[in-house]
Design a protein that fits this description.
Elements: H1 3-28, E1 31-38, E2 41-48, H2 54-68, H3 76-81, H4 90-105, H5 115-127, H6 133-140, E3 148-151, E4 161-164, H7 174-191, E5 197-201, E6 204-208, E7 218-222, E8 235-240, E9 245-249, E10 255-258, E11 261-264, E12 279-286, H8 289-313, E13 318-324, E14 330-334, E15 342-344
Antiparallel strand pairs: 1-2, 2-5, 3-4, 5-6, 6-9, 7-8, 8-15, 9-12, 10-11, 12-13, 13-14
Length: 345
């Protein structure tokens, strides 16, 4: 064998041995499991790494909290809501611009100014008394995504700021912040070279690679129930969400009845009243979780026809809807592209 072939053989052996060592290291490296509280809910994060990164992960989540939490007295969004001077950081800007885009795409079905109406109806449902038309009409004056805008001055010396048509308008990113938080943690894990992980915050999920069982990540979609104490978690279906983001919207344990039919407590920002369609939960798969989160909320407002119009325009989205049929039974509808993701039905 000549010298050239010997070198080729040696290089091939080096590649084979290197690959075996990498695979062995991947199999031997442990999975870390972190849990805690953030954004008023629970997070669960699983990732393959030889070091526990929980402190660093929580530092990333705190950045999101400091940008988008209306319950954080010093957050960017709180200062915007109080009409105080504040520097709009990258996290706030990214989420605001995405929310603005999806609001326009959904004709206002997704709206980060809707909180006053949601709060009014939430209190009304608990008390058994609906807010009056006068209250709703009054609140609608300070609701509407088109009533706020991001102003970008021409000069570099001036900072961007939020302009409101009415100073009483409040921003609330709760329908997109959990998804965005998942994206932020996922990016942090990727930057640390982590190939296998699952990030879950309050039911919103981002995954990559394989689970600690060496199989694709499988996430259950919970069946809506009137289980007020959250004991029942009956699964409607299981989805393969590997290398995808997943978000679910649906007021699972709060329904109201009208004409003998069940409706979720979802408020239409356009009318100020609860929606009157039979969708009880909407699950969306997308490339990023902030987008999935916002569209899942939108689909609860839009109903079947509106959801299908959006899906026709955005083939990159997949949706799984749980609704009640004419007999009051649970039924499902999903976009054709979702079929390959369904593991159990």
């Amino acid at each position: 064998m000549n010298k050239k072939n010997l070198l080729r053989l040696a290089f091939l052996l080096f590649l084979i041995i290197g690959t075996i060592l990498i695979i062995r290291q991947q199999h031997e490296m442990p999975y870390q499991h972190n849990s805690g509280l953030v954004f008023g809910t629970v997070y669960n994060i699983t990732y393959q790494h030889d070091i526990d990164l929980q402190k660093q992960i929580e530092a990333e989540l705190m950045k999101v909290d400091n940008s988008l939490s209306p319950f954080n007295d010093k957050s960017v969004i709180t200062k915007v809501n109080r009409n105080e001077p504040v520097t709009l950081n990258d996290m706030f800007l990214k989420v605001f611009e995405l929310a603005e885009k999806i609001s326009a795409e959904t004709d206002g079905a997704f709206d980060i100014t809707v909180a006053p109406l949601v709060n009014a109806w939430g209190f009304g449902f608990k008390q058994g008394i609906s807010p009056t038309k006068q209250v709703i009409d009054s609140l609608r004056q300070i609701v509407g995504f088109q009533k706020v805008e991001l102003v970008k001055p021409d000069t570099k010396k001036s900072s961007m700021y939020i302009k409101k048509q009415d100073p009483r308008i409040m921003l609330d990113c709760s329908a997109i912040a959990k998804g965005y938080g998942c994206d932020v943690v996922a990016e942090f894990l990727k930057k640390n070279g982590i190939q296998n992980f699952m990030v879950e915050i309050g039911g919103e999920v981002v995954t990559k690679g394989v689970s600690d069982k060496r199989v694709p990540w499988r996430i259950g979609v919970t069946k809506p129930t009137e289980d007020t104490i959250s004991v029942s978690n009956e699964v409607q279906t299981v989805l393969n969400v590997t290398n995808k983001a997943m978000a679910t919207s649906g007021n699972y344990r709060n329904f109201y009845y009208k004409g003998g039919k069940k409706y979720a407590h979802t408020i239409d920002p356009q009318t100020g009243y609860p929606v009157q369609h039979n969708i009880l939960s909407a699950t969306v798969l997308a490339d990023d979780c902030a987008t999935a989160d916002a569209y899942a909320t939108s689909f609860m407002v839009l109903g079947f026809e509106g959801t299908q119009r959006i899906l026709d325009k955005h083939p990159e989205l997949m949706a799984y809807l749980i609704y009640t049929n004419d007999k009051g039974e649970y039924s499902v509808w999903y976009s054709p592209s979702m079929e390959e993701k369904i593991i159990e039905n």
